[in-house]
Amino acid sequence: MPEAVRYAIYTRQSAADPGNVLSSCDVQFGMCQDFVRARAASGWTWIGERLDDVGHSGADMDRPGLQRLLQLVRQGKVEKVAVYRLDRLTRSMWDSLQLLDAFRKADVELLIVTAPELGSAATDRFLLNIMGAFAEFEREMIKSRLADARQRLKRQGRRIAGPPPYGYDAHPKTKQLVPNLKEAGRVEAIFQMAADGMLPRDIAAAINETGWRTRRYVAKSSGKEHGGNPWTPRHVLDVLANPVYIGYFRDGDDVRPGRHRPIVTRQLWDMARDRVEARRTSTGSRRQNPTYWPLRGKVVCTRCGRTMSTHGSHHRNFIYRYYRCRSHAGGRPPCKGSSISAFELEKGVAEMLAEPASSDSSPDLEAEDGQLLSRFRVAWGLLEFNTRLRLLPEVIQEVRFYEAESRLQLRLDMDAVRRITSGDGGEGEHDEGDDSAAC
To answer: Among 379, 382, 372, 377, which Cα is nearest to 418's?
Structure first.
């Protein structure tokens, strides 16, 4: 009478799909079952327990199905383990070695549907190790491609991932943000109430009385429903601090421009933020870490000709910086000039200095100064971004931003240009006199 052989089938899929009745794990299990039955001699029996890991990565072994399989192997309750592909078992070379060693010590044979020729001989184990190495290499390549894709989306001003914020939906094809007309009107109303001086708790109470609720959504990984709750003051503050509503995305401790349509105007955003910040008490940590403004005192309003002031808005660990026109400077009538994102303006100025100048971009320059600027642009282009920001106060005398034309006009300190071009790194003495150039 042949000896009884018990076999287990292990399956794994990286992401759960609640709407799909026939999941990837079901497909793998069926193919493994057919594979074993075609090879099985009499006496082979399935252990009768599904070992599935749904929504788990193969990057580590912290998976309930895999841990249960190892438990059965160590207890001597399994003689053979069937998987559809080796990368379903693991994508890590180190984990592959550990698993194969555990199988070897327990005298358990690994059956791979896509590689049926591999057995338990030394050469086969060598090939399995090579396959494990390729599985790990593939995982690292996927991570690298995803990182490249995220950087490309950032450069294009596009959304990367995550659930859409309240007031927006994700476009079914592009996955980029499009305003949800019903919720967008509510977001604008929240900003207007804040701009009118209402406290976050009063705003939350008012919108709850109208029957508004937070966004309801279903998590893809678990299928559980979240949200749909009454508004709290924290919810209101999160909305008022989210730059997505004026066309920006959070990016670490800073923001980056997006390509989606803003829901509120910059003027309404500033009014609401000013009201919120006016009620905040300053902290010692902020006084110890002053905000850096490389273009302070150098940005000129193109509508009234006055120097624009700096303005910072704090929320948690984020600082939103702007250059804004002084509304009553010089005793003249208030200016209706717009505010400019400090990060975008500073980045635009730093990048403009590295761009090759066209033949008519600096018509007032002498030939010698034109050649100097050409050499300076080359030297400037070799500097790190942080170094450029550090040197901006020395190089720039004046900045004008023409919003309607999306055009910058700069006036440079030619003494600083000479020092940087000659490699003095911005150190040295200024010559007397007005030595500047426009570009």
So the answer is: 372
